[in-house]
Amino acid sequence: MPQFLEQRYDSRVRTSLAVFWLALYVFVNLTSVLYLGGLALKTVFGISLEYAIYGLAIISAMYTIYGGLTAVAWTDVIQVSVLIIGGFITTILALSAISGGHGPLAGFADMMKQAPDKFHLILAKNNPEFTNLPGIRVILTGLWITGMSYWGCSQYITQRALAAKSMKEAQRGLIFAGYLKILMPFIVVLPGIAAFVLRADITKADQAYPWLVNSFIPAGIKGIALAALAGAIVSALSSMINATATIFTFDIYKKYIKREATEKNMVLTGRISSFAAILIAVIIAPALKNLDQAFQFIQEYTGFISPAIFALFFYGLFWKRATSNSVLIAAAISIPVSALLKYIFPLLPFLDRIGVVFLIISAVIIVVSLLESKKNHPGAIELKKDLFKTDWVFNIGATGIMLILIALYIVFW
User: Which of the listed CATH numbers 2.40.50.100, 1.20.1730.10, 2.30.30.240, 2.40.50.320 matches domain 2-119+166-292?
Assistant: First the structure.
């Protein structure tokens, strides 16, 4: 991803975003995922938060540092399978507990009766969570910016598609992932609502899922559910570690420290940077115990830079006049403007703030670009039909995903 920015703009933009990403992965993503995983293990097994964090860090680092992206990809296949199986088992047993043993469908019906306000995708203004998911504005403002930045402009995510053997394979992988993503409400959201209905004996929201596993899952099956949870955590950690190592090695080390680095040097540097990243995250992660929802922390503070990241790629791809200086200024003001808006308007929902920051950044890019040059940037992308070519399998799959999403919004509006 940084390499594309250099081809479209210049090396300054590449380096700036590389530094942004490194800071984001180490200080926000890695730390928060380590904390969440440690909290889950603490809730289920009663071990200390610090020891749980150390254990997850060691397991993730062991095969990521020595196996690279190949190890991450193959273990993801296993971990996702276990995650889905364990997740569905947890959901089914939690719903059965709500119905008093009359099955998951009866439990789902009871849950909708007992907590009807939890089944709305679009929240009303009187909903206490409106500041986190601000009604229809959530779709019109920050949510799509956050989504596009994460799924389309992040090395952590796109490295999987970039590693595909062909464009066709990459596209079909994306469709497959899209259908897997649709399962998330059933194995993530429903257990959370179930914990609420069952009046979970927890001190913070992040303990809901491990509480369900600990309270309602019998031994043996509990192992599968816990393996699923741990697998998801380790999978995320490993992908982030690998992305961090890739960006540091190619965009910092090879570009500025040792330009003539051999492949052996780069592999060693990747391993050292992976170890450094996980070590920093391990030191910081326990400090997050004061948070009620770590996921909220991830989304809000990623939102300080996601508008800029998305804007750089969006205008880089679709507007030939966008200049290097304009996007550098946009990247530089993203965090200060976000922090200023948070300070001046503390009650403004953070997703709305992301939308406002994106509009400000867009205005900066457009104005500076128009003032700076009357010609297209020399690195501008020539958009041709071949760039957007998809086969019938992708088209049918994508249509299916959109129809399912439309149906979900109609039913649970």
Answer: 1.20.1730.10
Q: What are the domain boundaries of the chain?
A: 2-119+166-292
Span 49-81, pLDDT tens digits: 888 888 888 888 876 776 666 766 777 777 788
- CA dist 244 and 299 (Å) reads 19
Rounded to two decimals, what is the model's pTM?
0.81
Contacts of 261 (CB under 8 A, 6+ apart): 253, 254, 269
pLDDT digits (tens, 9 = 90+) for 306-346: 899 999 999 999 999 999 999 999 999 999 999 999 999 98
Percent of the chain surpassing pLDDT 70: 98
pLDDT tens for each residue of 139-166: 888 888 988 988 888 877 888 888 888 9
DSSP of 216-252 = HPPTTHHHHHHHHHHHHHHHHHHHHHHHHHHHIIIII
Angle between helices 208-216 and 31-45 (to 10 degrees): 30
Q: Quote the tokens at residue 139.
A: 């779709």
Fill in the DSSP letter of residue 386: G
In sequence order, which residues have a C-beta less than 8 Å from that of residue 203 and are 6 or more positions away?
Answer: none
Sign of torsion over alpha carbons 74, 267, 26, 42: positive
Of the candidates 60, 78, 88, the one whose C-alpha atom is nearest the C-alpha of residue 278 is: 60
User: Cα 352 to the chain's mean position, in Å?
Assistant: 18
* Burial category of 17 from C-beta neighbours within 10 Å (exposed 0-12, middle 13-18, buried 19 and up): buried
Ranges assigned E (strand) in 277-412: none
DSSP 324-350: HHHHHHHHHHHHHHHHHHHHH-TTS-H
* pLDDT tens-place string over residues 14-44: 888 888 888 888 888 888 888 888 887 887 7
